[in-house]
């Protein structure tokens, strides 16, 4: 079974839903043994087809958190989940798609993933339109080197992690948030209560090592499209770095100005052990250029100490780690249905399907017309036979089978006139005698007459030639052989029946 692993870009918060599009996507194609078959970058329509497609959803589009979930399943669970995460996000939970980790709950606490429902629908429809049927959506943070957070597995996340309509970002201290969210076009101030809650979360979980991955620079959207009055031209000149943050299995993402990268990483770590990676060896990157390079100058041209110590993390390593993850965002209404015809498939098979349907309709209509014609011919023939019977024998009161009734009436007339009926014993035996031909007459072992039928058994030593049946037909008889016995009757009586 071949597997295609694709990295998805983050959603552009400034672009409306009708303008969403996907650029060329880096991918790696694995065979059934896990060996790399192909790698590169291609548009959605040109991606190679595989039995399984694994899409790495951008960390900035997903928020991984722990929450206490009631022990329900199916539709009830889907209805309850928005209420479970309502206090931990600022975006309307009804507009979010919430996926549940398949791992068993500990103390009723499970890992949840929150993503914008509209963006999730756009991604699934894009893959379906391109012909990818079996698709798994995995958070990109699931492919990062994991840190040990077993001490907090059964502990719900603090309410300091928040989600807005533009990006799912953690609330750190007021200064860092003000710098980051101003660039993204979100609110420029955070209440002191929320900052206190964020600080409390950091204090409780500061023992969990933090893993940060720098995924490259963010393509800046025209600030006029964002419509934010707090946007300044100075910020537009500063490149932003795409960050994926993982604290154990919890994860989020953000876009950080390059000159605030070190301060943001320090604030995210909050004293906990910090490991910084930079994504490297991205398929489709130009030769000699590391698309995941992490050495960006600040406003004064000095190098960033933390980013300079970043460890190279190959794209294929992230892809294989995400493939091993069991967490699939395609749940509830987005659950993979296997193969099902899409719009493109319908367009390809529309003409053959219509031709097949037309041929079936023509065949059915033709059969009905033929049956109707034959039925009318049968009724006309039966009517003619009934008329002939009644004209010859007007005393017949009930007519059920005109042909057989006519044959019986004629036999009765022959008997009344002293003539033998074709079905009498003498008539049948005389016809049998004339039909023997080369078969000796003393070769007959037994002969019986019952119900106007002659049953003849020949001796085992007698060979009955193949022309015997045709000679019977020539003498007005019909013969059939079964179990070594010949059943002989009048041909006219057989046709009448």
UniProtKB/TrEMBL annotation:
Keywords: Cell inner membrane, Cell membrane, Membrane, Protein transport, Transmembrane, Transmembrane helix, Transport
GO cellular component term, pick one: Gram-negative-bacterium-type cell wall
Domain annotation GspL cytoplasmic actin-ATPase-like: ranges: 43-150
Ranges for domain GspL periplasmic: 343-452
Pfam families for this protein: GspL_C (PF12693), T2SSL (PF05134)
InterPro entries, sorted: ATPase_NBD, GspL_cyto_dom, GspL_pp_dom, T2SS_protein-GspL
Intracellular or extracellular location(s): Cell inner membrane
Membrane-topology descriptor: Single-pass membrane protein
GO biological process: protein secretion by the type II secretion system
Family recorded in the similarity comment: Belongs to the GSP L family.
Identification of the protein by name: Type II secretion system protein GspL
